[in-house]
């Protein structure tokens, strides 16, 4: 099948257009349905890499330290997210434990690791192995990352527990809060722009190769 990088297809109505040349911060929209066709990413890819690294660091902290410490009548207890998942499994709620682990650990980690790998300078210069598979994997994992839902549930639970015991927020709770903000910025980036940039660079290399002596 012949590739046509000069054409772009609307994801909403399947209309086909010639790919427009965009200036800084410009966005091209479909004349038929007003859906976004393309946008100038500028230096967003360069800014996205440190955000992804920061999100990975916060992810490690959020899972290595206690979320909260609860003190009641001189007794105290704390737990991490992994500890909470294991407690759910021990209490016979294996399905819930699996769901929590998948939506707050596995799928967000997959998104961040794949994006970090694709955003590396060496990966942007040459299409890395498994490029297409990794993009599809990241797209499939995006709807299942629910750290913000978990964070909301934790806050509701802490408010209710504060009437019965002393609740001391742990380092992981603050890390989860910051991670929610960073993941919102990281995951909102459309992976198809990475594909488009790689296609442009590949076409440029082929053009240079054809004109090389």
UniProtKB/TrEMBL annotation:
Keywords: Membrane, Transmembrane, Transmembrane helix. The lineage of its organism: Bacteria, Pseudomonadati, Pseudomonadota, Betaproteobacteria, Burkholderiales. InterPro entries: PqiA-like. The keyword Nucleotide-binding does not apply. It comes from the Bacteria. The chain crosses the membrane at residues 48-68, 96-120, 141-161, 173-195. This is Paraquat-inducible membrane protein A. It holds the Pfam family PqiA. The keyword Hydrolase does not apply.
């Amino acid at each position: 099948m012949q590739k046509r990088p000069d054409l772009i297809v609307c994801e909403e109505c399947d209309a086909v257009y010639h790919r427009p040349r965009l200036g800084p911060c410009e966005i091209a929209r479909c004349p038929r349905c007003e859906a976004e066709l393309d946008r100038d990413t500028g230096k967003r890819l360069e800014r996205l890499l440190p955000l992804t690294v920061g999100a990975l660091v916060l992810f490690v902290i959020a899972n290595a330290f206690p979320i909260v410490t609860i003190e009641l009548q001189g007794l105290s207890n704390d737990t991490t997210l992994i500890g909470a998942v294991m407690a759910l499994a021990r209490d016979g709620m294996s399905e819930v434990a699996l769901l929590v682990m998948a939506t707050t650990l596995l799928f967000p980690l997959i998104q961040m690791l794949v994006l970090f790998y694709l955003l590396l300078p060496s990966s942007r210069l040459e299409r890395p192995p498994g490029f297409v598979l990794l993009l599809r994997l990241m797209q499939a994992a995006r709807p299942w990352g629910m750290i913000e839902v978990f964070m909301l549930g934790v806050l509701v639970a802490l408010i209710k527990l504060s009437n019965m015991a002393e609740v001391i927020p742990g380092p992981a709770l603050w890390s989860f809060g910051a991670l929610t903000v960073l993941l919102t910025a990281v995951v909102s980036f459309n992976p198809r722009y990475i594909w488009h940039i790689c296609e442009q660079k590949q076409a440029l290399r082929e053009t240079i190769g054809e004109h090389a002596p």
